[in-house]
UniProtKB/TrEMBL annotation:
One Pfam family in the UniProt entry: MST
Gene3D superfamilies according to UniProt: dinb family like domain (1.20.120.450)
Protein name per UniProt: DinB family protein
Species name: Microlunatus elymi
SUPFAM superfamilies membership: DinB/YfiT-like putative metalloenzymes
Domain of life: Bacteria
Alphabetized InterPro entries for the sequence: DinB/YfiT-like (IPR034660), MST-like (IPR007061)
Length: 167
């Protein structure tokens, strides 16, 4: 696991792709930074009525990367569990350790970067519910998805040990 430095927002006049990639990278880094440093008990602790935990959110984000870049954009087969038991990606197994989950998320992000680098923003993939989506749309969705979960991680982290702040 590598804890990334805080990343600034992209420049307001950067080209579209640089802006999309910049915000996505910023929120990927924030998610990792919000989770890093917790002990295993804290990372697994439920603080809300749902089964949401810091470790579970990081596990989910790893599979979000896989879903959008590998399955949708690259067209690889969708695992059956996504339709049979979609909550699996949030559930923690006994051997799920936060450090490993963060490392797996970071590896998935690197794979996503490599896949995206092979495509133009207008290139498309097919999603089973949404139909055809462009890489541009995937970037926008991933920013929204990771930013939303980074906010949840922020709240959980504050409840767990008082650590606060945007990043």
């Amino acid at each position: 696991m590598i804890i990334p430095e805080a990343l600034p927002a992209p420049n307001g006049t950067d080209p579209e792709r640089a802006v999309l990639e910049g915000f996505l990278e910023q929120y990927r880094a924030i998610a990792v930074r919000k989770a890093a440093g917790l002990d295993e008990a804290a990372a697994r602790r439920r603080l809300v009525d749902s089964p949401t935990t810091v470790a579970g959110l990081i596990k989910h984000l790893r599979w979000v990367e896989e879903a959008w870049f590998v399955e949708v954009l690259q067209g690889r087969p969708r695992p059956q569990w996504r339709d049979v038991d979609p909550d699996w990606q949030f559930r923690l197994e006994d051997d799920d350790q936060l450090g490993n989950l963060i490392a797996e998320f970071q590896q998935a992000c690197q794979r996503s970067r490599l896949i995206a680098a092979e495509h133009d923003l207008d290139d498309t993939g097919s999603h089973p519910r949404l139909g055809v989506v462009s890489l541009r749309w995937i970037y926008a969705h991933m920013i929204e998805e990771i930013a939303r979960h980074a906010g949840q991680l922020d709240i959980l982290r504050e409840q767990l040990d008082g650590v606060v702040g945007f990043d």
